[in-house]
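Prompt: Have a read of the protein record below and flag anything odd:
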Amino acid sequence: MVTGEELGCIESVDPRCIWPNEASDFTPWLARNIGLLGAAVGLDIEIEEREAPVGAFNVDLLGKEPGSDRVVIIENQLGRTDHSHLGQLLAYAAGLDARVVIWISLDVRDEHREAIRWFNEKTSDAAAFFAVELEVWRIGKSAPAPRFNPVVRPSGFQQEIRKPPPSERDLAYSEFFRGLIERLHATAPGFTSAVADAYPRYNNWLSFGSGRTGFGVQVAFDTAQGGRLRVQLAIAPGSGDGGAVRNKAAFDSLYAQRGAIERELGMELEWERLDQAVMSRIAVSRSGSIGSMPADIEALQRWAAEMLPRFREVFAPRIVNLDIDALIADDDDGDT
């Protein structure tokens, strides 16, 4: 039993003592530890680029939400908020068509809290604005611990307007994925930071981060073959010219490890290179559709909640270590 004399004292640490320079210290650290911010605001976030260009300026971090592919921008300010950064934030949001806008600072002024609240109240599309204060705490001689404190967030948290109104099938998908996220929070804590009731999810698929941008661990309803539910790794690290080459190189490298991967998962997988498409997939599936009976829907949710963490556990280490440029170079050398 801990006595009163053994209790430590919590003390605040100036974040600028941990990260002296915002651009070279804090922003790279945040990109590597984006899950801490995601957990605070209730979102899964994948970082795609640091110092992403927007006209003549650069936004600190550009990312996306895997479950919706909505653009996320993050602007950091190791100090009190000011009008200059507020203006930059709006310019970045407009230039990148951002749907999630996060402003991190050490102290959010009252007038800027009101401004962010006003944006959330007046914007009628899917844009969501967050003002987050960065804190660092320490107990005794323990290591400093960062804390992201959202002081302003959207009312009703990210309502999404759709026209025309959602169909019964849309609503069924939304309810299925809401239940799945709740089940993942219960059975696989830490798998996702997504909030179950954040906003309606009307697509027939939902994607989660895999540890590397361009690779998504997904659950999707497939209407072919009488209806199936798939858990899959979607492989699309490349886009634009040469994107398909990068994606197929990544798929081929994973396929070369097929035996080990299937042994670790304890099942055979569906390996879909999809030569006529840009994306490739590796999946496992079972019979079921969104129109199934409630008991069957619950069984599908249980199955997906079991398979998704297993997919990430097996594939993530391999994905992170993929050197796609080297794979393409080796393939080119073999062709000459």
Remarks:
- The chain has ten helices and twelve strands.
- The chain has two domains: 8-152, 168-334.
- Confidence is low (pLDDT under 50) at residues 158-163.
- Residues 168-334 form one domain.
